[in-house]
Every structure is written in structure tokens, then in C-alpha cells.
Design brief:
Blueprint lengths: L4 H14 L2 H10 L6 H5 L6 H13 L3 E3 L8 E3 L1 H31 L14 E3 L2 E3 L4
Antiparallel strand pairs: 1-2, 3-4
């Protein structure tokens, strides 16, 4: 399920950008609508310059865009890019869900394999009976 080099690079940039908690918080804030750098900086105890750098990383990953509105330069979420990331994740999630369904079906068809053996070299209790360690 590997893509071409450009696709892989875009995925790497996006996931690297989302690895930072401040950038994830910025994305969460932008999910409610566009905001200026000053508005995005309010909840953080970092400089406006630091917030601007975080926004640049998100822009480079194509997760956000900026527009010009007179003197304002609002930052906007790029929902299409987030949808592409979600679709990439879902491909793998669906593959693993199918594998688990297959395993569940196999275990349901063979109930003897779904319970652990009570014979062995450990000491413990199983349904009220004690198994002793073998010499």
C-alpha cells in the first residue's frame, strides 16, 4: 500500500506537523473557523513569532492556508488534506479490522482453542481447581 515518492513525502510532512501538540491545538481551533495569528496565539504561553512558525509548518504540510482580508491574514483549515490523511489511515484500519473479524470467526468455529490449557508448569487456579507445578 505504498504510494509514490511525492505522496509519501506529503504524508511524512503532514504527520510530522501533527506530531506537535501546539500544532494539533491550532488545527483543533481552526476546525471551528478561520482565525488570525493573534487569535491562535491566545491560549499559548509562546510568542507570536513561535505561533507563526507553527503555522508555517502546517502550511508546508498543506494542512492550513492563509488568505488576505484587508489588513487581516486569517488562517484557514484545509479540510481536504485532513480527509486525505483520514482516508490513508482508514485503509490500514479496514485491513486490520478484517483480519480481526477473520480471527474471531476462526476462534468461534474452534472453541477448544479459545480457552487456555490448565495443564502446564505453572501454579494457579482455573475455575476453582488448583494446578500444581510439575517436577
Amino acid at each position: 500500500m505504498m504510494g509514490d515518492g511525492a505522496t509519501e513525502e506529503r504524508l511524512d510532512r503532514a504527520f510530522a506537523a501533527l506530531a506537535d501538540p501546539i500544532r494539533r491545538a491550532i488545527i483543533a481551533r481552526l476546525s471551528r473557523g478561520p482565525a488570525t495569528v493573534n487569535e491562535l496565539a491566545e491560549p499559548f504561553r509562546i510568542s507570536l513569532q513561535a505561533v507563526s512558525k507553527h503555522i508555517q509548518v502546517l502550511e508546508h504540510a498543506d494542512l492550513v492556508t492563509r488568505s488576505r482580508d484587508a489588513q487581516r491574514r486569517p488562517v484557514h483549515l484545509n479540510p481536504g488534506r485532513l480527509e486525505a490523511l483520514t482516508a490513508w489511515i482508514d485503509r490500514y484500519r479496514l485491513v486490520h479490522e478484517q483480519r480481526f473479524r477473520t480471527l474471531d470467526a476462526l476462534l468461534a468455529d474452534n472453541p477448544d482453542t479459545s480457552t487456555p490449557s490448565t495443564t502446564g508448569t505453572t501454579t494457579g487456579t482455573t475455575t476453582g481447581t488448583t494446578t500444581e507445578e510439575k517436577p
